[in-house]
Amino acid sequence: MKDIFGKALLDFQNNKHTADIITWTSISEEDVLPLTYLFRNFDNMPKLEQKALTLARGSVLDVGCGAGNHSLYLQNKNFKVKAIDISNGAIEVAKLRGITTAKCIDVLVENNTFDTILLLMNGTGIFKTLNETPLYLKHLKTLLNHGGQILIDSSDIKYMYEDEDGGFWIDSNSNYHGELDYFLSYKGEQEEPLKWLYLDFDILKENASKVGLNCDLIAKGKHHDYLAKLYL
Asked: For labelling alongside 72, which of 62, 83, 104, 147 has CA 20 to 30 A away?
């Protein structure tokens, strides 16, 4: 990866913000991702993220931490937090913002245990595909302390396939409808496409059950999104 995402975060952190990130997917057109949004405080977070943070307890692993908004909020509340991301730039920014423990690693490499694991901003995205989902859930299960919890959000994007007549143009022979190719560019430089997964709640619950995790629906958002809690 070129870590364009990390470069953009570093530019903003270092007051060199002259452009925003452009994103698009295999089923959607270009959209602007404002860098200011990636540095939002608690009051400016979506309700589902706020809910997840209020439910956090004990030691916390923030997976895909980005600029570290969630970690910073919890650390300021005296939680013991470890922030991880695969973006070197994101981790550098997290450290610059004062996060005590931040590391550039894939969650599949993590081997410590925690009371709360956060996967927010479409946390199922890191699973990449439906077929790989059990692998990630099984590993996340090993990172839970007794009584621990995984707080994860996602969306059912089936609505994006709806036609004007209320029908859906999903090919039953193709991959799961939440599997997307995700693209981003910044200042004219384009990142290699990423596999990104949106999971509807029922599919998440089904896959959690396969690896021995309970899955509760905690809250629903206003646009097909939800927050779930996974636990032993």
From this structure: 147
Distances (CA, A) of 70 to 10, 81, 135: 18, 10, 25
Tokens of 232: 């032993």
Q: Is the distance from CB of 89 to CB of 5 less than 8 angstroms?
A: yes
Cβ within 8 Å of residue 19, ≥6 positions away: 8, 186, 187
Whole-number Å distance between alpha carbons of 159 and 183 = 20
DSSP-based three-state secondary structure for 162 = strand
- Partners of residue 22 on adjacent β-strands: 32, 185
Cα gap 143→176, rounded to integer Å: 27
Strand, helix or coil at 84?
A: strand
Other C-beta atoms lying within 10 Å of the C-beta of residue 132: 14
CB 137 within 8 A of CB 154: no
Judge residue 48's burial from the number of C-beta atoms within 10 Å of its C-beta, 0-12 exposed, 13-18 middle, 19 or more buried: buried
Q: How far is residue 138 from each of residues 84, 115, 230, measured CA to CA in Å?
A: 18, 16, 11
First to last CA, the chain: 35
